[in-house]
Design brief:
There is one protein chain. The chain has three helices and ten strands; from the N terminus they run ααββββββββαββ. The protein is mostly beta strands and 223 residues long. The chain has a single domain, classed as Sortase (Sortase, Chain: A). The longest helix has 15 residues.
Amino acid sequence: MGRRRVAPAVIAGLLAGLLVGLVAACAPSRAVEPDAPSSPPHAASPRPSPDVTSAAPAPRVPVYDPTAPAQTPSAAPVRLVVPSQHIDMRVVPVGVADDGSMGLSENAFEAGWYEYGPAPGDPAGNAVLAAHVDSVQSGIGPFARLRGVSVGARVEVTDDASDVHRYRVVSVHKIPKDGAPTSSWFDRDGAPRLVLVTCGGEWNAKTRHYADNVVVTAEPTGG
């Protein structure tokens, strides 16, 4: 089944809100396993609104030409596999939540694909998949192991047409949220890439955020 596309002008407005919220989109949960980010409080706090506790101001967002022709719908991703870290997750399409954050599933075992941007297999731009590192509902999620991915690691994304898109990791970064270059993560131009995002670093009880984002970038192998 193909995915829904929206006009570029609408995308620009959605992206502006999304960029504010993604840096604060990882919800706390119970204590985490040793290789995951440091533990938040045992009593989970609700995800805060970004206009109260957002760790960084909104970055500048590119404005898209509203007269540009509509893109041909692509198949939506439904499964993500990172064999080296035993990550095998369902992928669901997501947009922007009411609070401006990326509308991720509360299930930390599901990755959200930003459906208003490129999809895996598109000829240009970044396909963005993100997930909570943990959640109250599901506990520690597979993306808690994302920071252990090595450059050169294999990544596979299967879409709803049963096509498998293969990637090789080219960078792994832990980035402070107050300096996160979120606009570049959602780049719609340039070479096609896969960008995986979650939270990491120390838990800050005052801001109710993890300190960092873990960002894995991968490029298609063509195989």
